[in-house]
Amino acid sequence: MSTPGRNATLSDLAEVDRLVHEPARLAIIALLYVVESADFLFLMNQAGLTWGNLSAHMSKLEEAGYIEVVKSFKGKRPNTMLRLTQVGRSAFQAYRQKMKRVLDGLPE
Amino acid sequence: MSTQLDLKELERKAFRSTYQDGLWDLYFGLIVICMSIFIYRPATGYSPVNMVLLSSAMAAAYFLFWAGKKFITLPRMGQVQFGAQRKKRRLMLIIVLSVVVLIQVGFVLFQVFAWLTPNVGESLNSILLERHLMNLVVAAIGALFVGPSMMLIAYFIDFPRGYYIAVMMMMAVFFMIYLNQPVYPIIIGALIALPGLVLFVRFLQKYPLPRGESPHEHAG
After folding, report:
1. Domain containing residue A50: CATH number
2. Residue B135 banded pLDDT, cuts 50, 70, 90
3. From residue B210, how far is each of A77, B25, B70, B74, B80 by CA, in Å?
4. pTM, whole model, 2 decimals?
């Protein structure tokens, strides 16, 4: 038998941002949340993802406007850094709050 | 553990991963070795030539550190910029170290002034020379100049191995002055550099140069 509290929890779970919820993307977003910016290689090493895998996830996050690519030059070499946008940051915060509510609402 | 704590841990882990290459340990080890070799010159004492040689050797050590970071670490590990909190800590380190250096300079000036004051100088000399304490006191002061500063650096740059380096540096300076022999601080410098060398080799094995696509060719 479901209680009103349990219903609210389940509806929260249904509304969780699936773009953030996927484990590899969650790792990428969490990393970019705690640093100012990082390049592709650093994220690959830290998240333990392959090049192709990370690239695919990055494209999805970029399409959603969650990350932005900042291109510059260091001397003559191009320097590409990735950072979380304000939209991405808010999406991650909302995701954390929802997941916390969901998990806190579960019985021991 | 709360979610907030996990994020802090994630940030700390990412930050400390930048020390995996062991270059800081190698750099500090080289500094101690350079100091041991070039400061200890019984024939010429603290001559300008020794100081120039020491400065050149330390500049060469820094160049090796910089080149290692730029040409070995970054192409393997990638680049990252940390948040405002880290920048704040770096600024705090500069401020605190400046204060420490000012205190140390003040202390040295006070000592010089005391020694130049006839009565005080004579009594200090008689106490220290008669009891053969001069070397011990100077060695202890030298060690205290170096150790706490290095500990502050380790704390503010969040570099746990820095505390070990600080203790080793204190011992190196103490033995360099007290025993007046370069061999002990050179061994201590090697003991600082050795873990760095092991870490550096491990780093090269763990992070090979990425092949094919350049990290800078991605996306956009």
Report:
1. 1.10.10.10
2. confident
3. 17, 25, 15, 11, 17
4. 0.83
